[in-house]
Design a protein that fits this description.
23% helix; 3 helices; alpha/beta; 8-stranded mixed beta sheet; 3-stranded mixed beta sheet; single chain; 217 residues
């Protein structure tokens, strides 16, 4: 059966439990591969939780009893998700989009960068560090995370952007293996901490516009 060409955007107002999100993505990926469902971008928030990617180190989970911890099939290390953070799960046909995984990840990063640029936040990649970073008073803080998985060239999992989460919740992990010390002055930030009071609907509009710029949809 031929694949469907339309891209569907889904926005969930309620906080979605992580296992429910994974179940949905697994099903959607199978349907996209079968040609019975369109590609999808799913915008949502989770309740507070930690996820462990395929490269996660047990020692980077500093507070294992603070929030639920879920093993994740995505690449990367430990990540926090919670209220005030926009998660965008990208269920896309990477083969159709060129079949170059590194280029696809680069495009996901560019998507985050161009979205934040719409709020006058200059965000950048950093060699050797996963995610999207902003310079803030002589230090560099992470504002966006990237973590995907491919199955038969269909992506799932995706990106997250810190809009106004409780930043102390990140203290239960070493986010993406990057610790904060005098030698490595890296932390976590948000649009709100940078003085940009952005609503989720405003961010969603920016995500849609930037996605079209980067991916051409």
């Amino acid at each position: 059966m031929g694949e469907l060409s339309e891209l569907t955007w889904r926005i969930s107002e309620e906080r979605i439990p992580y296992p429910d999100a994974v179940d949905f993505m697994e099903q959607r990926v199978a349907e996209i591969r079968a040609g019975t469902a369109s590609e999808m971008i799913w915008l949502l928030e989770h309740p507070p939780l930690y996820t462990a990617g395929t490269s996660a180190k047990p020692g980077d989970l500093l507070a294992p009893d603070r929030f639920p911890v879920y093993q994740s099939g995505r690449g990367g290390q430990f990540t926090y998700h919670g209220p005030g953070q926009r998660v965008a799960y990208a269920m896309l046909n990477v083969k159709k989009r060129g079949g170059d995984v590194r280029h696809f990840v680069h495009d996901l990063e560019e998507w985050v960068i161009r979205t934040l640029d719409r709020f006058n936040v200059r965000a950048e990649r950093r060699e050797g560090r996963v995610g999207i970073w902003v310079a803030d008073g002589g230090r560099e803080d992470k504002i966006g995370a990237i973590g995907i998985r491919l199955r038969h060239w269909i992506s799932f999992h995706g990106i997250s952007i810190n809009v106004d989460p409780e930043l102390s919740h990140f203290e239960g992990i070493v986010p993406c293996g990057i610790s904060e010390s005098a030698a490595t002055p890296y932390g976590v930030t948000s649009l709100a901490k940078l003085g940009q009071m952005v609503t989720m609907p405003e961010l969603d509009m920016a995500l849609k516009a930037a996605f079209a710029d980067v991916f051409g949809d």
